[in-house]
Amino acid sequence: DLQLTQSPSFLSASVGDRVTITCRASQGINNYLAWYQQKPGKVPKLLIYAASPVQSRGPSRFTGSGSGTKFTLTISSLQPEDSATYYCQLLNTNPPYTFGQGTKLEI
Amino acid sequence: QVQLVESGGGVVQPGRSLTLSCAASGFTFSNFGMHWVRQAPGKGLEWVAGISYGDINKYYADSVEGRFTISRDTSTNMMYLQMDSVRPEDTAVYYCAKDEARNSDFPIGFYYWGQGALVTVTS
């Protein structure tokens, strides 16, 4: 099965910073990647759909890009409320709909 | 508005069975794929199973294939996850989630989630 590897696993940044989280697939997956944000004790929140072109469901400072095996989630100007764990997920193709292992972002 | 409410969680012994339910409302249930996602304590998200719109296809993660069964009843807007031969590693919060794509063969993103049902497998 296809594997998704997120990096970094942990990221510390400051308010106003631009940060990028990477999700690498073990094989090419076109644009079939969604991104989620999860805060402690809360359900995941969909930020980016697995669609082409990339479609956002979250605030405009969150953008998704990439193709093939490398995908990124960029937060253009970090806000205090962006402190969370972020996950990528393979979708829009045959299952399994694997999640990445997560990236914990500390502000 | 869209609501998903899980029930049926609890403590179960290894090897036994448990059935989770997800009550859906606020949308045309049969037109959307539905999924179960779990999260072990302190761990990441794991996709468990999915059922496509119109119940055309059912999908499972390798870790639960042959032990778990996903189903739904469109007359009552209920989705189920029958969990047989449970193992300690099945201990997790189980979420039901709705895909955003209408009448689609493949999911594109889970925007609506239930609050989760905790399943603890222990002797």
Shape of chain B: globular
- Contiguous low-pLDDT stretches of chain A (5 residues minimum) are none
Give the % helix of chain B: under 10%
Instruction: Tell me the structural class of chain B.
Output: mainly beta
Continuous helix count of chain B: 0
User: How far from one another are the termini of chain B?
Assistant: 40 Å
Note the gap between the termini of chain A: 34 Å
Helix content of chain A: under 10%
Structure description:
The complex is a heterodimer of chains A (107) and B (123). Chain A has strands at residues 4-7, 10-12, 19-25, 33-38, 45-48, 62-67, 70-75, 84-90, 103-106. By secondary structure, chain A is mostly beta strands. In chain A, the strands form two sheets. A five-stranded mixed sheet of chain A has the order 2-9-8-4-5, with no helix packed on it. In chain B, 0% of the residues lie in helices and 54% in strands. In chain B, the strands form two sheets. In chain B, strands 2, 4, 5, 6, 9, 10 and 11 form a seven-stranded mixed sheet that branches. A four-stranded antiparallel sheet of chain B has the order 1-3-8-7, with no helix packed on it. Chain B is globular.
What's the arrangement of secondary structure elements?
The complex is a heterodimer of chains A (about 110) and B (about 120).
Chain A: E1 4-7, E2 10-12, E3 19-25, E4 33-38, E5 45-48, E6 62-67, E7 70-75, E8 84-90, E9 103-106
Chain B: E1 3-7, E2 10-12, E3 18-25, E4 32-39, E5 45-51, E6 58-60, E7 68-73, E8 78-83, E9 92-102, E10 110-113, E11 117-121
Parallel strand pairs in B: 2-11
Antiparallel strand pairs in B: 1-3, 3-8, 4-5, 4-9, 5-6, 7-8, 9-10, 9-11
